[in-house]
């Protein structure tokens, strides 16, 4: 049930393929991330295309490692 993005599928994936760790997913308050960006402690990279996020969402639902709160949010956000 792995999900791997290949080099070139996103501008940030340049040296190695990138595995998505579904079990490490979490729900967080976006305002905290925005504050960290404002303070300079977080540096944003290129946005992830909706198609990549959708692949992650579809793989996450029903995955044995997904935290329950994340699965609930993914299902409601993506209609899955």
In words, what does this structure look like?
The protein has helices at about 30-40, 50-60, 70-80; strands at about 5, 20. With about 80 residues, it is mainly α. The chain has one domain (about 5-80). The protein has a two-stranded antiparallel sheet. The model has no long low-confidence stretch (mean pLDDT about 90).
User: Average pLDDT value?
Assistant: 91
Number of helices: 3
Class computed from helices, strands and strand pairing: mainly alpha
Strand element count: 2
Notable traits:
two-stranded antiparallel ribbon; mainly alpha; 80 residues; 40% helix
Concise overview:
The protein has 80 residues and is mainly α.
How are the secondary structure elements laid out?
Blueprint: E1 4-5, E2 18-19, H1 30-39, H2 50-60, H3 68-78
Antiparallel strand pairs: 1-2
């Amino acid at each position: 049930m792995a999900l791997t993005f290949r080099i070139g599928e996103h501008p940030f994936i340049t040296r190695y393929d990138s595995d998505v760790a579904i079990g490490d997913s979490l729900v967080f308050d976006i305002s905290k991330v925005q504050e960290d960006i404002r303070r300079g402690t977080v540096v944003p990279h290129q946005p992830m295309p909706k198609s990549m996020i959708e692949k992650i969402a579809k793989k996450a639902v029903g995955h044995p490692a997904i935290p329950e709160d994340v699965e609930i949010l993914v299902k409601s956000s993506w209609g899955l």
